[in-house]
Structure formats: structure tokens, C-alpha cells
């Protein structure tokens, strides 16, 4: 330590002497090197660089000895405290997030996960490809089977207005053929939907927890039941009411000669939109199960739901008559209130 201090003081003294010597001989140096400005201060820069490097090396050696004698130990003792504080803050944030239902859904405990075989990404993609292939085959087979009985299906869908004396016309070549294709497509989708739903569930099921698996069966069964109930309700109530309104309104003024393509487009869209609108309780149960919305909150906004049901009925129904809209808005409102009470009674 003493030798290092003496060396530093000696180098500083040499540097100061060089500075004074250079200042006293600056005038002579300028006269000698006046014609070469690039080499005017070359000697000064070299000596100053050497002295500065020596001082820096001595200071680094001195700091290294201080750190080895005890300074490094104190520094390392203070750093874990900062790390502990940041770790504690991180743990607190994780604990706060762990109480949320979304966090529990995205990051379930390992104890809740079933003992299934783990698969790689390529295995999942291969399974997805196979299930898509099976779904497409089932959908195609259902459409072909429905096309074989397309005329019988058309007679069934014409029944709501047959008693009113309505006649259907083919206004363009091939219109009836394309209508049968459309009816076969909708009916094939309806018949093949159980297979498609099964393939979706079989693909998603390994990623669900045990509790979510128990909750999945009632949701799927209830969703399917509500969808088919909506189609039956549309066929038995909505479609006859809307068509009878149009026929009675035009009675005595014009003869009802309808295009078969436009008629089936109206009927099929009305039936499928009604089936989709009957999924409201399923959505409510999912929101209640995840804890995003409670049953009391759903019941507290019933005034807005009334307005929303009327607007949704106006959008879903292809007709513009108020009777069809009211007939659809009533069941939508009843389904919403029923789903809200189910969520409330389930303790959510």
C-alpha cells in the first residue's frame, strides 16, 4: 500500500514538472516547429499518455486490494437484499393474480391436471389434421344423404304455408336444383353437427382439468338441446306466424306466388338464427363459471337486456314485420332471465 502511494505521488510530480517545463519552453517550441503544426505537441502528448496510464494502473491495483480486504464482501452482502425485495414484490404480484379466475384457468395447478400422455406440437397438429378430415367426411356424407331425400325435405319445409294457398314458382333455369343443394347443405350441417362437436371435444379435452371436464358435459348437452329447441321453435311458431302475416296482409290485393329460392332462404336463415340465439344461457353459465359476471349483476341490467333482445331479434329475423321480432324477442328475454337465475342459484 505504501509503495503504491509513493508511486502515485511520484508520477503526479513528474507530470506537473513536465507541464511547467513545457509552459516555459512553449515559445521556443513554437519557433522551431512553426512550419509543422501536425508535430507541434507530439512529445507532450506521448509523455502525458504514459503518465496517465501508469496512474490508472496504480489506482486499479489499489482498488483491487481494497476489495479483497473487505470491500467486496460488503458489496455482495447488500446485493441479495435488493434481490430479495424484488423477489418478494414479484411473489406478491403472483399471489394477487393467482386469486383471479382467469389466472386459474390459464395456469391450473398440476394436481388438477389429468394424467394424460404428453404430446409434442407436431403430434397435436397431426391429431388436428385427422379430426378435421373426419369432420369433413362426416359433413359430406350427411349432405349427400340429405340430397337423396331433398324433395321430401322441401315438402316438409313448405308445409307451414301450404294451407294458405301459396304457390311456389321457379323463376330461373336451375333454381329448384340449386335450392335443393342449399337445403341439403343446411340439413347436412344439422345432421353432421354431432360428429363435428365430438371431434372438437375430443381434441380439446386433454387440455382441460378434471373439474373442467366435469363441467364440460352439461355445457355441451345443454348447448345442443337449446340449439335444436330453437330450430323446432322456429319451425313450429316463428315461421308460420311470419308467413301467415305476409299472406294475410296481401290477401285480396295480390296473389301469393313466391320464388322457391327466396322462400327457403328466408326459412333456413330464420331457423338457424333462432337456434344460435337460444345459446344465451350457455354463454351466461360460462361467464358465471369463470367468475367474470355474477348472477346479481346479470339481473341488475334487465332493462338494457329488454332493449338488446328487441334489437337482436330485429337483426336475426330476415323479415321486417314486428310480429316476428316480438315472437323472437320474448324467448330471448326469457332465456336470459332463466340463465341469470341459474347462475345466481349456483352460487356464482
TrEMBL record:
The keyword Transmembrane is annotated on this UniProt entry: yes
Keyword Transmembrane included in the entry's annotation: yes
GO cellular component: a single term: TAT protein transport complex
InterPro entries per record: Sec-indep_translocase_CS (IPR019820), TatC (IPR002033)
GO function term, MF aspect, one: proton motive force dependent protein transmembrane transporter activity
Entry's localization field: Membrane
Signal peptide location: none
Pfam entry (one): TatC
Membrane topology: Multi-pass membrane protein
Gene Ontology biological process terms in this record: intracellular protein transmembrane transport; protein transport by the Tat complex
Keywords annotated in UniProt: Membrane, Transmembrane, Transmembrane helix
Name by which UniProt lists this protein: Sec-independent protein translocase protein TATC, chloroplastic
Species of origin: Stephania japonica
Taxonomic lineage from the root: Eukaryota, Viridiplantae, Streptophyta, Embryophyta, Tracheophyta
Amino acid at each position: 500500500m505504501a509503495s503504491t502511494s509513493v508511486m502515485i505521488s511520484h508520477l503526479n510530480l513528474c507530470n506537473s514538472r513536465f507541464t511547467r517545463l513545457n509552459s516555459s519552453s512553449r515559445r521556443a517550441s513554437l519557433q522551431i516547429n512553426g512550419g509543422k503544426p501536425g508535430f507541434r505537441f507530439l512529445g507532450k502528448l506521448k509523455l502525458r499518455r504514459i503518465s496517465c496510464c501508469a496512474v490508472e494502473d496504480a489506482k486499479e491495483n489499489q482498488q483491487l486490494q481494497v476489495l479483497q480486504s473487505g470491500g467486496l464482501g460488503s458489496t455482495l452482502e447488500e446485493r441479495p437484499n435488493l434481490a430479495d425485495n424484488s423477489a418478494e414484490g414479484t411473489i406478491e404480484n403472483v399471489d394477487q393474480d393467482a386469486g383471479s379466475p382467469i389466472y386459474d384457468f390459464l395456469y391450473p395447478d398440476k394436481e388438477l391436471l389429468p394424467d394424460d400422455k404428453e404430446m409434442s406440437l407436431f403430434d397435436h397438429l397431426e391429431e388436428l389434421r385427422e379430426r378435421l378430415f373426419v369432420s369433413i367426411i362426416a359433413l359430406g356424407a350427411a349432405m349427400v344423404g340429405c340430397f337423396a331425400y331433398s324433395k321430401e325435405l322441401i315438402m316438409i319445409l313448405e308445409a307451414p304455408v301450404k294451407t294458405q294457398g301459396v304457390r311456389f314458382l321457379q323463376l330461373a333455369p336451375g333454381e329448384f336444383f340449386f335450392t335443393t343443394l342449399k337445403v341439403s347443405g343446411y340439413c347436412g350441417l344439422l345432421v353432421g353437427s354431432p360428429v363435428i362437436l365430438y371431434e372438437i371435444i375430443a381434441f380439446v379435452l386433454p387440455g382441460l382439468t378434471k373439474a373442467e371436464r366435469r363441467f364440460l358435459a352439461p355445457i355441451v348437452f345443454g348447448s345442443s338441446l337449446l340449439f335444436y329447441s330453437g330450430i323446432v321453435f322456429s319451425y313450429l311458431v316463428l315461421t308460420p306466424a311470419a308467413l301467415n302475416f305476409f299472406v294475410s296482409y296481401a290477401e285480396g290485393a295480390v296473389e301469393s306466388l313466391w320464388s322457391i329460392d327466396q322462400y327457403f332462404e328466408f326459412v333456413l336463415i330464420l331457423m338457424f338464427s333462432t337456434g344460435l340465439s337460444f345459446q344465451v344461457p350457455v354463454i351466461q353459465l360460462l361467464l358465471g363459471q369463470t367468475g367474470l359476471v355474477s348472477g346479481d349483476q346479470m339481473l341488475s341490467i334487465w332493462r338494457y337486456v329488454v332493449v338488446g333482445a328487441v334489437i337482436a331479434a330485429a337483426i336475426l329475423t330476415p323479415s321486417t314485420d314486428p310480429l316476428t321480432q316480438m315472437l323472437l324477442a320474448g324467448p330471448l328475454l326469457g332465456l336470459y332471465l332463466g340463465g341469470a337465475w341459474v347462475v345466481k342459484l349456483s352460487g356464482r
